[in-house]
Amino acid sequence: MIPENGYHFFGPTSKLIRIIHKPKMKVGSRLAWIYLLIAGVTEIVWAVGLKFADGFTNFFPSLVTIIFIGISFMLFATAMKTIPIGTAYAVFTGIGAAGTAVVGILLFSENASLEKIFFLLLLLVGIIGLKVLDGKETSGKEVDS
């Protein structure tokens, strides 16, 4: 525990050592969920970008992909300051996976079987369930980073 003045005695000689303590950046629970949602959507963008980048042989799609990877992970990391890692990662990858599958169906004429749609909806229900449970468990508490 660091005292409010930022000083702490420790060590065998009990020397006074200044501890630089950076205050935690609080991200409100609602804002964290918005960041996580946007991070998931940007994951869809960079996943589709990988398809158009063709193994990073096409410059513009490769550049867009790399930029959106950075944006996606920055937003994801910011959201995890408030949302527990297990919940955040499951929701982040769930949005990306489900969204990319839907884009694949719509843009690339991938198979849209009844079974595939059922499991995409099941994934969506799981994401919503994690959000609902997170609101009950954390009730605005901050996660140590």
Topology:
Blueprint: E1 7-9, E2 16-18, H1 29-53, H2 59-79, H3 85-108, H4 114-138
Antiparallel strand pairs: 1-2
Helix pairs in contact: 1-2, 1-3, 3-4
What does this entry look like structurally?
This protein has 145 residues and is mainly alpha-helical. It has 4 helices and 2 strands; from the N terminus they run ββαααα. A two-stranded antiparallel ribbon has the order 1-2. α1 runs antiparallel to α2 (59-79), α1 crosses α3 and α3 (85-108) runs antiparallel to α4. The radius of gyration is 21 Å and the shape is flat. It starts with 6 loop residues before the first strand and ends in a 7-residue tail after the last helix. The model is unreliable at 12-23 (pLDDT under 50).
Brief overview:
By secondary structure, this protein is mainly alpha-helical. Helix content is 66%, strand content 4%. The chain has a two-stranded antiparallel sheet.
Keywords:
4 helices; 145 residues
User: What is the residue-averaged pLDDT?
Assistant: 83
Can you give the helix content as a percent range? 55-70%
Integer-rounded radius of gyration: 21 Å
Discrete helix count: 4
Largest sheet: 2 strands, antiparallel
